[in-house]
TrEMBL record:
This is Molybdopterin-guanine dinucleotide biosynthesis adapter protein. It comes from the Bacteria. GO terms for molecular function: GTP binding. It comes from Blautia wexlerae. GO terms for biological process: Mo-molybdopterin cofactor biosynthetic process. The gene is mobB. Residues 6-133 form the Molybdopterin-guanine dinucleotide biosynthesis protein B (MobB) domain.
Length: 170
């Protein structure tokens, strides 16, 4: 079985992870890649809209529900813990799986450090492959990050996409 390509876009809350991921998704889609995104929610998200059949079924005691149509499905399952690796198995046809967050994971990652939002790296340094930032050169020099970690302009999603593809799709 081919190794699943998993890459994280990490950073503190409100650093711009979702914005960057959405821009990367557009680029990857234009290149013909199938990309899935996994996101952890530490606040026990509500997976359905109150009033729908599946919401009512979950509230009434179902441990899981599924709704599907001709082109998609949604599965909700009450389970104490599942890892990102296990969730990735739901996407066997994906060329790439992006993780949103997961700053302490063992997966390779780009960390977003945004002016006025975060001042230093908070990620697992062993897997920090690059930093995407809008800090100026002087502010970048003040960061205490690993040597040889490249910086990318936060608004240059095309360059970030190429970095991900060139390093991880050889």
């Amino acid at each position: 079985m081919e190794r699943k390509r998993i890459f994280a876009i990490s950073g503190v809350k409100n650093s711009g992870k979702t914005t960057l991921i959405c821009r990367l998704l557009e680029i990857f889609k234009d290149k013909g890649l199938k990309v899935a995104v996994l996101k952890h929610d530490g606040h026990d998200f509500v997976p359905d809209v109150p009033g729908t059949d599946t919401y009512c079924q979950l509230q009434s005691g179902a441990y899981g529900t599924a709704v599907f149509s001709a082109g998609k499905y949604m599965l909700v399952k009450q389970q104490p813990q599942i890892s990102e690796k296990e969730l990735a198995e739901f996407f066997p046809e994906a060329d790439l799986i992006l993780l949103e967050g997961f700053k302490y994971s063992t997966y390779p990652k780009i960390e977003i450090i945004r002016k006025g939002n975060s001042a230093e790296s908070v990620c697992n340094p062993e897997k920090l492959m690059a930093i995407a930032t809008n800090l100026d050169a002087e502010e970048r020099d003040a960061l205490s990050v690993l040597e040889n970690v490249p910086f990318f302009e936060l608004d240059n999603a095309e360059c970030i996409a190429e970095f991900i593809l060139s390093d991880y799709f050889r």
